[in-house]
Amino acid sequence: MNAIFQFPNYLLKRQALALTGKFRCYDPSGRLVLFSEQKMFKLREDIRVYADESKSQEVLSIKARQIVDFSAAYDVVDTAMNQKVGALRRKGWSSLLRDEWEVLDANDTVLGKLFEDSIGLAMLRRLLLGSLLPQNYDIAFGETRVADLKQRFNLFRYELDLDFSMDTEQRLDRRLGIAAGILLATVEGKQSS
């Protein structure tokens, strides 16, 4: 596996006021390790992630299985190795009140879930405060929390801390965790625009 997927923490930033969704992912020392530029007006999400802004080395793809799907599933592929890492599947009706996703392995077996912190805070975000109340997500495998994805308060851009440090056994593939962060930033961007 590529060394850029070995860190316990990352910071994901989405550029504001761009015609395309640009995402930059930084390692704990602040070095850019991943870049993605999402094309606008696509019927089916197809997010490509590169090792840097030159886009010469693609490392991941996050692709929706269908054009319109209330319980959308997104395959995450390590394109450098041409290997499916897993998938993320949105829980349709459950996500109306608070975001909830299933985390799947390469064979679509459920490993765990990704969920927004609380129904109360989620409803406040949706009904009153919007992006003024940062989102917080956990990824849990059973009762064990393996990741914390926490949005920083910033009026000018979307910033998401990806913390995998509690996953000492590395049960969650970092590629899948980073893809979850990018996907959440993409979905959040559409909800708040």
Keywords:
193 residues; alpha+beta; 12-stranded antiparallel beta barrel; 2 helices; 12 strands; 40% strand; globular; disordered C terminus
Could you explain how this protein is built, in words?
- This protein has about 190 residues and is of the alpha+beta class.
- The chain is about 15% helix and about 40% strand.
- A hairpin with a 2-residue loop joins strand 10 and strand 11 (about 145-150).
- The N and C termini lie far apart (about 35 Å).
- Mean pLDDT is about 85; it is low at about 190-193.
Q: Structural class, from secondary structure content?
A: alpha+beta
- Largest pleated sheet: 12 strands, antiparallel, barrel
Tell me the fraction of residues in β-strands, as a range.
35-45%
CA radius of gyration: 15 Å
Helix content: 10-25%
Biggest β-sheet: strands ordered side by side in the sheet: 1-2-3-4-5-6-7-8-9-10-11-12
Distance between the termini: 36 Å
Brief synopsis:
The model is unreliable at 189-193 (pLDDT under 50). The chain has helices at 119-129, 174-192, and strands spanning 9-14, 21-26, 32-38, 46-50, 58-64, 73-78, 83-90, 100-104, 110-116, 136-141, 144-152, 158-163. The protein is of the alpha+beta class and 193 residues long.
Write the layout of secondary structure elements.
Elements (H helix, E strand, L loop, with lengths): L8 E6 L6 E6 L5 E7 L7 E5 L7 E7 L8 E6 L4 E8 L9 E5 L5 E7 L2 H11 L6 E6 L2 E9 L5 E6 L10 H19 L1
Antiparallel strand pairs: 1-2, 1-12, 2-3, 3-4, 4-5, 5-6, 6-7, 7-8, 8-9, 9-10, 10-11, 11-12
